[in-house]
Amino acid sequence: MSTKRKIKLPSPADILRSDTADLLGIFDDGSIDDNDQEIHFDEGDDGESNPYKYHLDENPNYEDPYYYDLGDNINKQVAFYKSNNRSKKQDEEDNEDATEDSDEEEDDSDNEDDDSDDNEGSDSDDLDDSEDDENLDTSEKDDDESEEEEDSEGNEDDNEESEYNETSSSKANSTEGPSKSRSSDTGESSSGQNGAVANNDEYADGDSSDEEEIRNTVGNIPLEWYDEYDHIGYDTMGEKIIKPDRGDSIDAFLKRIEDPDYRRTVVDRLTGQDVKLVDDDLDLIHRLVKGYVPSAQYDLYEPFLDLYSHEVMETPLSGRPEHKRSFLPSKSDRRKVSRMVHALKQAAIHKHKRQKRYNVYDLWKSDNIPVPMRRRLNVDYKAPPARLPTNNSSYNPPPEFLMNAKQLEWIERNKNGHQRKLLLARLPTKYDSLRKVPNHFTYVMDIFNRCLDLYMSSRFAYKRVKGHSKDLLPDLPRPRDLRPYPTKECLLFTGHRSIVRAITIHPLGKIMATGSDDHTIKIWEVSTSRCLHTLSVGDAVHSLAWNPNTRVLVLAAAVGKCVIIINPENYLTDATVVARTNALLESKPDYGDYTASDKVAKTIKWLLPSAEEKEQGYRIVVKHTHKVHQVVWHQQGDYFATLQPDANTTSVVTHQLARWRSQIPFGRASVKVTALSFHPKKAYFYICSQGRIRVYSLVEKKLIRLIKTNSASEFISSIAVHPSGEHFIVGSHGKRVTWYEMECTNRPFTLRYHHGAIRSVAFHNKYPLFASAADDGRVIVTHSMVYSDLIKDPLLVPVKELRNHQLFDGLCVLQIAWHPHDPCLFTAGADSTIRMWQ
């Protein structure tokens, strides 16, 4: 039994297919010795495997029985190794026989020396031994032959050449006999190989009937990979398959002129060779192009033989009588037809419907053919049609179109002969019948001018721009993507009995202060809407503002002609903060050499409250000459400004809380001032008046910006500065909210979504949000994203409309304020309520 062997074929021999190697006999069991389990190609001088070492193609030995007279070099090489391996096997068998004979001779000589007397016995023993050896040799030969027959029978199903070699070797053994085992083996293999060559076996070179159409072995790959190379791929040995010489354009032209079969020759893209089409191929192509059936012998209209009804039966399969509906008209069909007739009478069914047009494509068009270029690069505009004739061109026009005698006389007097003739030819003339109309005098000239215009005059088409109003709107994000922002009412603060005009939130966000026309100031807990403290101030409260410094607890309230500094002690504030505030405000500071000017002394007076007022929380009273409408704090918490609009040049006053000092820094600029504000980061001060906004530098003591609004008489009601300090917004009684940028104040953004006078605007300190409140009862929350890129404009998107306050005497929402940390909005309305939106 043959053992399992491993075949090692170094590169490039590993490209060979296994089925081709089997057909050549490499894996034949009888060609490899059992002791030698591997096949190795010899290495060349350079250390690499060289399958062409023996150069069999240069000096072929045609007498070698294992030589293949074929074109493939690998067949010759495999045959050579097969013969070499088999000769080595026979030499080893002869050496084994020779050693056995020498051992027997030595045994015989020893026996002769020891037993010289028994010659006859020894001779008989030698004869017996020789007979045994002959029997042994014959048995070994039979075993070898039986093994070879089993191996050949085992390979019979996989390889037809092995079967043929087996039959030829059996014939050689029968003729020559078993006397010479080596010559028998040699003849066996040689007869098999010669038989394969003599019969020209079609499978000897590795081809089969399934591969008859294969011309080379590059495989099913895109041939465009090798457009830049001089070959089209590699064969089974790893060698390049060189492209055939196709010639140049001159050769192609000569071939087209001289070759009679040029029209029926195509190029095989796989091999690059010319293939001549036979008549059947041309006929098939012509029929496919014309859309005919590919086979001319196929009859589309062949008589059809009905397999079931061509034989008439004498008796029916069933004796059941026909149903009544088989010979009576259908009532349901009659109703359908009547409905359709009625619909046609009512014009409910349109007979002339435009049929659907389907995009039909060319079924036989190749995808590799490029799209043909357009004949003209310019658009072919149609010429305008000639003007149609009117009543003036009629041969029998109405009398009102005819010329009167006075007009004809004027033509005769003022026009020369040629001009008169042209003019009269174009004037309407009355004829009794069409046959009396003469030839038109200017017909040729009119046609010439028409053709000249068509040829020389340039034509173009006006491109209509289809614009929609929605195309002018910017592409804004969805409001739900811009959250968080307040959307609904969550808390209601009730307790005031009149209009609530002022509202302010402490910087820590725990308490809130509100002022009303009922002469009270209330302190609220934000989280529970609980009133912590109520102060009676004796007059209407117009403005409230907490000190932005959290180290002290100071509330400034504009009440009548006074500004009251209050320390509202409660359980929500820290005791150390309250003690620090009382220590700061309990006594009047030492002025030293400082003396206030006469103008300031007449306008402002710093007073200490009475004992009763001090028990309520009063700490300082700053008295003015006119009603104070607004109080604003500087970001540090030591300075605050007040506005008394009726005081003309002394309407804007600045105060220092720690030193009890006041100043009137502005003169004519403080006339008709309506709103004030400090810059959150720089020492800038904003003053709003009718139609103008002034920005002053408190350090340089000069005007740095003068901004004019769209209307000179516009009343600005409120102003809010962005936390970054680069933008600010103003609200006016003109129902507009205007967004300004400090670096480009001449190009503001105007938002017009309110229907009443705007009372208050406010920015959130943390989130990109601002809100505006108006007398129309609506509070609009707007997303305001400011980018770090100064070139990019801010993103302003109104996201929510809050409406829940009631109108009272034409007023609704008067003041709004944001929570310092959360996206919550507080609104104070004329309905004496405060609402929290979250």
Describe the 3D structure.
- The chain has 838 residues and is of the alpha+beta class.
- Among the domains are: 13-110 and 129-204, no CATH class; 217-290, no CATH class; 495-671, Methylamine Dehydrogenase, Chain H, CATH 2.130.10.10; 682-838, Methylamine Dehydrogenase, Chain H (7 Propeller).
- It is 26% helix and 21% strand.
- It contains 14 helices and 33 strands.
- Strands 10-11-12-14-13 form a 5-stranded antiparallel β-sheet. A 4-stranded antiparallel β-sheet has the order 5-33-32-31, with no helix packed on it. Strands 6-7-8-9 form a 4-stranded antiparallel β-sheet, with no helix packed on it.
- A hairpin with a 3-residue loop joins strand 32 (825-829) and strand 33.
- Helix 4 packs across helix 5.
- The chain is elongated.
- It starts with 17 loop residues before the first helix and ends with a strand.
